[in-house]
Amino acid sequence: MQIKRHKKEKDEYFKQNGGLRLYDEMRSRQVDTIRILTENAIKKKKATDNYAEDRVLGCGGRGMVYRGTLDDNREVAIKKSKVKDDDSKEEFVNEIIILSQINHRNIVKLLGCCLKVDVPMLVYEFITNGTLFEFLHDNNQRSPIPLDIRLKIATQSAEALAYIHSSASRTILHGDVKSLNILWDTEYNAKMSDFGASALKFMDENDFIMLMQGTLGYLDPESLVSHHLTDKSDVYSFGVVLLELMTRKKAIYVDTSNEKKALSHTFILMFHQNKLQDMLDSEIVDYEIMVVLEKLAELVTQCLSPKGDERPTMKEIAEQLQILRRL
Questions:
Q1: How many contiguous H segments (helices) and E segments (strands) does the chain have?
Q2: Which of 96, 125, 226, 313 is 20 to 30 A from 277, alpha carbon to alpha carbon?
Q3: How far apart are CA 86 and CA 279, in angstroms?
Q4: Which CATH superfamily is domain 2-125 in?
Q5: Predicted TM-score (pTM) of this structure
Q6: How far apart (Å, rounded) are the C-alpha atoms in residues 67 and 77?
Q7: Of 10, 70, 65, whose CA–CA distance to 43 is shortest?
Q8: Which parts of the chain fold into alpha helices (H)?
Q9: Is 176 considered catalytic here?
Q10: Phi first, then psi: what are they for 321, rounded to 5°?
């Protein structure tokens, strides 16, 4: 009797957490449902030491990410929803559907999901060194970052975005490109993550209904006005990430007058005043490579163009970054 009750409870959780919709989506898209829907044979609480604080890898508005260990001793990242509302569950299901269509070396792999529980969980490959945001802005662990490493991370991130825009089985928009959503490993390989805000619902036109998410400092001003998300919205956000790599300043930073400023606005102003060098991180200012930095700055200004149709595609950006790496 107790076993039946437990099974019924798990089945109810599965429905509540969007499992049926997920099955339907997987079938309609002919996606490998076994890989995505298999409930991992692990005890999640044991895997994360009962969600201990020292296992926390990151915390977002809707979920906590913990470092965990599977029964086969593989290290993983386990994302657990913080809230149980329908929007949060929809975001989790959306991320599963998105990542099930993606296979790229610079995009974090989804290993499985757990929907037959009170709060849904996603299980990802574990990326060793954390986020690009921490790498650039954590003053407690600040260390010099050579330009070639910055360009490598930028290029691989651009290639990942170019892939989801034009090479995946269906066009996908990330919707929340930022340094906090770019992971990196011990070899400085970049991995794009957090596809919960991604746009998947394709409209008849070339635009996607804008999911009003994103992060202050990275948001495309054109999309905020039009309420439509396009591939050029990701391009704008990526331009801000390039600025972070060039300046080591946050997207919203505090200036010497203790005022909050948008990095993108300050950069455009300084660039047009021929004060590029004043904006650059002093670690990479070298007259021998100024030609590379100047070309990179020009690329950034194109990404940050107020008009989306004047911005390059992510494929073009990736190609330009590859050229800059060879200079």
A1: 13, 11
A2: 313
A3: 43
A4: Phosphorylase Kinase; domain 1 (3.30.200.20)
A5: 0.87
A6: 5
A7: 70
A8: 2-16, 19-29, 33-37, 44-47, 86-100, 132-137, 147-166, 221-226, 231-247, 263-272, 276-279, 290-303, 314-326
A9: yes
A10: -65, -35
Question: Which range is least confidently modeled, 60-74, 96-110, 310-324?
Answer: 60-74
Q: How far apart are CA 281 and CA 253, in angstroms?
A: 14
Where do you find CATH 1.10.510.10 in the chain? 132-326
Would you state the structure tokens that stand for residue 146, as one six-digit string? 């050579």
Number of C-beta neighbours around residue 2 at 10 A: 6
Catalytic residue among 24, 176, 204, 231: 176
Contacts of 262 by beta carbon, 8 Å cutoff, 6+ apart: 217, 251, 252
**pLDDT by residue (tens digit) across 226-275?**
888 899 999 999 999 999 999 999 999 998 889 999 999 999 999 999 99
Segment 45-94, tens digit of pLDDT: 555 555 656 677 877 656 788 888 877 778 888 887 765 666 666 677 77
